[in-house]
Amino acid sequence: MAKITLYSNSWCPFCRRAKMLLDSKGAAYTEINVEAVSGARQEMIKRSGRTSVPQIFINELHVGGCDDLFALEQKGKLEKLLAD
Question: Are 44 and 32 in contact (CB under 8 A)?
């Protein structure tokens, strides 16, 4: 099973969409709220180079944000990443 980390905040609609897609795949993930966890936003920026949420990592591979996750799904590549 893939190790998934999703950086988010509580009000982001794109975070909700990304979580809905992962939930529909039955994927378990660790969600880190960048507003609630001290230092989490800085950690996310250091890991991803991006400041917006969500930022999604699958097995330490930076997938990107919500649009990137859905693009992988549309290309048929998300299932393989989740299975690795």
Answer: yes
